[in-house]
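Title: Request for sanity check on Glycosyltransferase prediction

Description:
We are preparing a figure and want to confirm that the structure record we downloaded matches what your pipeline produces today. Could someone re-run it with the sequence below and paste the raw structure tokens into this thread? We only need the token string, no images.
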Amino acid sequence: MKIAFYAPLKSPSHPVPSGDRLMAQLLMAALRLAGHEVNLASELRSFRGDAQDWAGLSSLQKDAAAEHARLRDEWQQGAADLWLCYHPYYKAPDLIGPALCAEFARPYVTVESSYSERRNLGIWAGMQGHVRAGVRAALVNICLTARDHHGLCEVEPEARLARLAPFLDAGAFLQQTPRSEPMHLICVAMMRAGDKLDSYAHLAAALAQVPEPWRLTLVGDGPARPQVEALFAGFAPERIFWAGQQDREGIAALMSRAAVYVWPGCGEAFGLAYLEAQAAGLPVLAWRTAGVPEVVVDGASGVLTPEGDDAAYARALSALLQDAPRRAALARGARGQVEHHHTLSAAAAALDAILSRHLEEMT
């Protein structure tokens, strides 16, 4: 099929790296691996971060109307077979695809669409209305987590839903030979306000309670780096290594030398970095929260602790650092978990099967 791909939160060609950008790139790669022609339909970013930004909303609506008109002219010469939107949610709805698909009688598909009644505030209430209408109209809504699946079921019980396991292109990580330097910890995350900064704060608070002579490599950068540096300023300088932003090969090499991947995971949809760590042969220590259990199997590929409990996190980390055989068993389980359930090839086959099944049901 000829698939028009759109990511309203962050385009796969956006210059700033993030999990959303990477997941958009991975979806395009999986669809291409399945034999489809995939084209980026629009670079329009519909993200709005302020519920009172009415002027911004008006500007966005004008931009969306212009994009709709451009694509209508383009589709007059030959429409795509299907429009696929990645991650429409209350701050970044798809304001183009549903109307275009209705006009040209083409199927509309979402991946990782999410909806929450408690977000119906200010301009977000209207933006969520677009998300909900898209979910209702979609040929299928492909959910990457049980939480999103449950949320869509609650608001649109008649919506067509399917599950797809989160995935990654694991090659660079699976190729690493784990060296597992004892007491060496690592995390990979952007340094920005919100959930990321909160996770850094909880990690620092937990590490302050771990007496073992650990060392931590922090991979990432961003506008909140000064705040992150302040959070870790109380530790001896030799304990913290600031690796900065790295490409995937650099991340894989750094992960191969660590013993445990540490990241609490405030608000994580699921966390692609958790999958990267496991593919590199690292046990993961995270909270049992949000979508994290979708990718980390407690007791098999990592350890999950109660959300917000820094003391419990510290105790679990101390236990792991003192138990090399358990770390080794979790490391084997982590790599096996990715190899069997979260590869790009598995996702390509599953995506193709989901789309084929629902398209057949249309006819």
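Thanks, this matches our download. DSSP finds 13 helices and twelve strands in the chain.
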